[in-house]
What does this fold into?
Amino acid sequence: MFRTVAELVEIAEKENISISEVMIRQEMEVKEKTREEIFSEMEKNLEVMEKAIEDSLKGVESVTGLTGGDAVKIQEYMKEKTPLSGDLLLDAVSKAMGTNEVNAAMGTICATPTAGSAGVVPGTLFAVKNRLNPTREQMVRYLLTAGAFGFVVANNAFISGAAGGCQAEVGSAGAMASAAIVEMAGGTPQASAEAFAMTLKNMLGLVCDPVAGLVEVPCVKRNAAGSSLAIVSADMALAGVTSRIPCDEVIGAMYRIGQTMPSTLRETGEGGLAATPTGQLLKEKIFGSLA
Amino acid sequence: MKYNSVFDIIGPVMIGPSSSHTAGAAKIGKAARNLLGSEPSWAKIHLYESFAKTYKGHGTDFALAGGLLGFETDDPRMSKALEIAKERGLTIEFMEDTSAVSHPNTARLIIGNGEDQVELVGISIGGGKVEITELNGFELRLSGNHPAILVTHNDRFGAIASITSILAKNQINIGHMEVNRKDLGKEALMVIETDQNVEEAVLQELTKAQNIIQVSTIVS
It folds into this structure.
């Protein structure tokens, strides 16, 4: 069983297999499942993700009205204008935000690794899909590669905002997506690790400060940031750029930063954006009227 | 390791908005229901730290209720669970508790039905994963990764051997086991994680063994 990214990459290189294949073989061994069972279970998750994106592009709104509709806005902008950042990037942003809008509206999503960060992995997947034209199996493998990296983070650090801030959620999700994009685009296991490290490095220190304690503001837009960074890091790694700090050490840094984060900045809705005058006002409007 | 499957990371499929505060809370509620062995008619729920500060926004309240009603994390009725609980005659009281706890997402559930009562502490560690850290005053560490048998027994010699020999006879392998007691010679609790779910007939046999007070299970 791999405990670190270094071990994960080593197994892949030694056996001359992909990261997703390492993950499948471990899952088969630990859970005593067949390859077919794992594929079909993961494909169900893929279908949930696809459905959430479809729903979001029809337009959704949360109960509070704080979020919803931005995914549609971005798609319309892409049709009418030429986006500065590029179609693929903006498509990923739109689909990541859309998934998180569905989540905020209490729709059905697949946590990747959490619900608050559930937009990043599917958002990037369904945007990159249009460029790389993967098979259904390759799409399932994308999730397994993302999962393999997330597995290391979850066991060596944390993946929840309450434990480690948003760096642990959207930070992990973005980094996982980077690694998966690299594999789908034909990069090496080591290049996946480099992409992962570069995304997580740029998410270090990000706090979890949800307005009124709701998974809406700023969560939906942080999914946009996570997915765009994921694509940029993947491109950097595919170009041969490497991280000076090894992947596992970046995860270690994320863990130590999270441990020193005050609880006001770990999903309590007490600090950061939640504590701004507007954040407080929104909270009062939402819960004041309900109380 | 805390997480042992790729589906802990890519999953669960769930109703939003939060994997720890909604899906995890539902799992804690469901674990309590399983341990009670029936649908509770009342529940007192203490919430701590992040759970206490944000439970309304995250739907932790309806998710805990949903779990107590036996809902899975992706049950479409989840957001209506508080209303459904009321219809089914389940009274739930939520308390924001300021006591110090070791994990930010902690809930203490005291639930009952007739003469039966269960008190447990659950923590939601992220991505929908939970752990049960206390049951009826006993400290324990139950990952929920595997099915488990919980045996309350008198702290006497031979009690553990009688249970393990019944499991051995039925070819049930023990993956992890721990024993806790409140005091010397008093009530004690065995927590046994097994590789497969244990059949009702075996549970009956366990219940009849000497010095055994109660047997309950967590099905995986």
